[in-house]
Specification:
This protein is 48% helix and 18% strand. It is an alpha+beta fold. 21% of the residues are buried. Helix 2 (26-39) packs parallel to helix 4 and helix 6 (121-136) packs across helix 7.
């Protein structure tokens, strides 16, 4: 995001000179860009911004008597202040925020959101929990990599509820623990799982990098109820 901000302000800076372009030589265009670049040099003094580049550019502008550089200096000052003080947001964070807005629209109120990276410890923990349930009933034909199995493990563990084995988890748990569940395949790489108790619901978003790779839990949305098609809880 820092490079995006820097590049965006540079483009706006150059556009601000469009009306004066007939009077600006190639050397002056290079000087304008150079002043903007110099302004981005700073010193971090115990958490305090010292805009060394802005000071140098200002002194140069005064000595060279080139007021046309004022705009470049202003843009440079805005850029260095923004880069230093505005919280840094990565593309992955921006994507996750956009996804949160999209998925949260399904619910009346979202109480909590949990995000998990591809190398998060949660994937190994869910896999170990699934294997432990499989060991209790080796004859079970339930796929331990199925998103519904993994999400049920996450939700019931989060609720502090005990689990018997895979067959119980798939067939009996919803009736005994009184919850509704549903799976929704968004596309070939995205799977959504819903588990709804009477007073709280959870939606898990599972994704995979390619068609033949396993699903991994990417995010969990804890909500009060769905806006539409509220399920009948057993």
């Amino acid at each position: 995001m820092g490079w995006l901000l820097w590049g965006g302000l540079l483009v706006l800076l150059l556009l601000s000179y469009v009306n004066q372009r007939q009077n600006i030589t190639k050397l002056m265009w290079l000087t304008i860009v150079a002043v903007y670049l110099v302004c981005n040099v700073y010193v971090n003094l115990f958490g305090l911004l010292v805009p060394v580049g802005v000071i140098i550019a200002f002194v140069y502008m005064k000595k060279a008597k080139k007021p046309i550089l004022t705009t470049a200096l202003i843009f440079g000052l805005i850029c260095v202040i923004s880069t230093f003080y505005v919280p840094k947001i990565s593309w992955s964070q921006l994507k996750a925020h956009s996804q949160d807005i999209q998925y949260s629209a399904e619910f009346n109120q979202v109480n909590a959101v949990y995000h998990f990276s591809a190398d998060s410890e949660i994937h190994e923990l869910l896999s170990k929990s699934a294997l432990a349930l499989q060991d209790k009933n080796p004859q079970s034909e339930i796929n331990i990599e199925d998103p519904h199995v993994l999400f049920s493990l996450w939700v019931l563990s989060h609720q502090g509820l005990p689990m018997t084995d895979l067959d119980w988890l798939w067939y009996k748990a919803p009736l005994e623990l009184h919850y509704y569940w549903q799976s929704s395949r968004f596309d070939e790489l995205t799977n959504k799982e819903y588990i709804q108790f009477r007073d709280v619901g959870y939606m898990g978003v599972f994704t995979k990098s390619e068609k033949n790779s396993p699903y991994k839990l990417q995010a969990v949305y804890e909500y009060d109820r769905l806006k539409m098609n509220n399920p009948i809880i057993p």
